């Protein structure tokens, strides 16, 4: 699918009307009222999962005492898991109360959690392969407040998870939870051939593959099994660097909606990720050497709410995309900004010819790297602090580095080797313009109810 226009007026056909549903279906699907429990398939799912783990781990040891011991032990584990799963399912519930999500859980130690939806950062619907077979889904709700702030509602029906996701986003936008799901418009669909070629067309992957072939040929021709053993780590590295991303981003589809950027991808773990407006703190466009020949890039972001491993797992907005679409996405997540028009000035001394810095009224842009060119883009309204650093040797040379600090994530916007006077001017300009941008830009809470908020994404 061709990328949709990034800017301009919304010459877009209105979304198709939602199909009418019977009153009973609407009532069954209404997650905005009352208390709800996880799907009943939670119990057999947990029993099956624990039984398979038991057979796989201690099972080979128990089989030595005879098949009967293994069978009885497995039945005992399955029975105990069934009792615990039933009690856990019975004591688990969730529901919406005003502007809060209330979650009850626990068997021995009961817990109750009340989540203010005004602090919602992102909502993901995750469906591993076994859940896809059983028609289940997990809803992951990211909130402001650190690593312990993530709320996971496991083993919901797919329709319930998607309806609850829409209600949570509506509440976070300041709308009623019964508001119909916002329409969406296509942004980009990743062709499988482009994904396959881009993942293979990388220097580490090509180098590891050539070295793997050399070791295989050498081991077979010399008859030395030790040489073949040395190829195993290379094969594992290839699987992690090529097969893993291939399976993860197959069937990748990105769309734009008034409630944020929607991403769908994955085979063995299907995922629907929704990033509400204003949650993206910084963006980087990564262009490896061989990718530049293809005119494609990868787009990563620091997304508020994701921390630690979840931040790294959810930082990629577009895995492989034409360079023009990558810059168009920057205009989507940072409305009114045009990173492609920011003039970049190369470092005069102390840095390489590939280090550059650009600044306008909205964006701080830095570029670095020869083999892998990385362009880091931070809106001035999101800059948490601006730093000028210069060691003793750098001061004698008259150069300094400028860092634009953002919330945690893979992006660390830094311009190295700048002239000391220029670096001071940049720091002063970012501080002044950033203050002006923050005073004129509303926060990301309840974006749909503000008169100055952004309308439907065009």
Q: How would you describe this protein?
A:
The chain has 458 residues and is an alpha+beta fold. It has four domains: 34-91, no CATH class; 100-190 and 252-276, no CATH class; 206-249; 279-442, no CATH class. 38% of the residues lie in helices and 28% in strands. A seven-stranded antiparallel sheet has the order 6-5-4-10-9-8-7, sandwiched between helices. It has a seven-stranded antiparallel sheet with strand order 13-12-11-17-16-15-14, sandwiched between helices. A three-stranded antiparallel sheet has the order 1-2-3. A hairpin with a 5-residue loop joins β2 (100-105) and β3 (111-116). α2 (42-56) runs antiparallel to α4 (67-91) and α7 (192-200) runs antiparallel to α9. The radius of gyration is 26 Å and the shape is globular. Residues 1-28 and 451-458 have low confidence and may be disordered.
Kindly state the number of beta strands: 20
Task: Tell me what portion of residues adopts beta-strand conformation.
Answer: 25-35%
Gyration radius, rounded: 26 Å
Distance between the termini: 17 Å
What would you call the structural class?
A: alpha+beta
* Total number of distinct structural domains: 4
Helix content: 25-40%
Largest sheet: 7 strands, antiparallel
- Total of helices: 14
Major beta sheet, strand line-up: 6-5-4-10-9-8-7
Broad shape: globular
Low-confidence stretches: 1-28, 451-458
The pLDDT mean sits at 81
Summary, kept brief:
Helices cover 38% and strands 28% of the residues.
